[in-house]
Structures are given as C-alpha cells and as structure tokens.
Input
Amino acid sequence: MTNTKFIVKLNRVGAHGPQYVIEMGSSIKTTSERRLALAMGKYTAQDAIDSMLSARCTGELIPIKIPT
Output
C-alpha cells in the first residue's frame, strides 16, 4: 500500500532553477535539491503555495508515492 504526499515546487522569476520547500514555520525555507524537500499533506502544501504566491513566484504541487 502506498500513501500520496506532496512537495511544493516554486518557480521564481530570475532564479536559475526550481526551488523546493524544506521547512515551514514563521518563514518558509527553500532548497534547489528535490530530495531534501518536505513531504506534506495536500492541504498543508496548498497553504504553503498560497502564502508564497506573488507576481515573481508560481507554485506547483508535485505528488510522490511513499510506501507504507
């Protein structure tokens, strides 16, 4: 059986490549390495995207399968 989690991929204008969310708290921290990305539930990931939306940043949910 597998469980579906989501990671948040951010595309920022002027950045060299995509960024992934690694930590959420008072501020959201990002990294360019996908393997370090925080796997979270769909609603938490959507909240992270909504809080970071701006004219310079677009977010995308990437589903990943986690075996249980």
In short: The longest strand covers residues 2-12.
